[in-house]
Design goal:
Elements: E1 9-10, E2 24-34, E3 40-48, E4 53-60, E5 76-77
Antiparallel strand pairs: 1-4, 2-3, 2-5, 3-4
C-alpha cells in the first residue's frame, strides 16, 4: 500500500470477492516490535465488515520507512 514505506498490506483472501464495497470491520489483533533503529512499530490486523482479513496496518511511530521486519521471536503482543 502507499503508506510511506512503513509496510502496510491490503489483503485479498482467495474466497473473498474483491470489490470497492469492502469496509473496515474491526481490529482483531495487534503486535509491536522495535525496528533496527530502535523505533517502535505497531502492526494491526483489520477485518472487513464480514470478518474476512482486510489489511495489516504497519505504523512506525516516527512515520519513517520501515527498515526491517524482525524474526517472529521479537514480536510482542498486546
Amino acid at each position: 500500500m502507499d503508506d510511506g514505506g512503513m509496510g502496510s498490506l491490503r489483503l485479498f483472501p482467495h474466497a473473498v470477492e474483491v470489490s470497492d464495497t469492502r469496509l473496515f470491520g474491526e481490529a482483531v489483533s495487534k503486535c509491536y516490535f522495535d525496528d533496527t533503529d530502535g523505533v517502535r512499530v505497531i502492526a494491526t490486523l483489520y477485518v472487513d465488515q464480514n470478518g474476512n482479513p482486510l489489511e495489516i496496518d504497519v505504523w512506525k511511530t516516527n512515520f519513517e520507512k520501515l527498515i526491517e521486519i524482525p524474526d517472529t521471536n521479537d514480536f510482542n503482543g498486546w
